Amino acid sequence: MSLLMALENPFENSRKQLLKSAAILVHDENIHKMLRHLMRELRVAVDIRIAAYFVAIERGVFIMNERGWI
Prior knowledge:
Distance between the termini: 27 Å
Largest sheet: 3 strands, antiparallel
Number of strands: 3
Number of helices: 3
Helix content: 40-55%
Shape: elongated
Oligomer: single chain
Order of helices and strands: HHHEEE
Number of domains: 2
């Protein structure tokens, strides 16, 4: 991975790609608004041993928008 790729914001890259595709395809304005605000989702499941024979599974969902993880 180049240094430039590491510094680029993936949300800005996807917005640029969306604008290029909107110039080629005719998007409905509502679809364009929805696609402009991108979010990522990270699902996590962690096994936690509490006792000798008991294992709890903690699950969580982390969502990232253009401002960071929420």
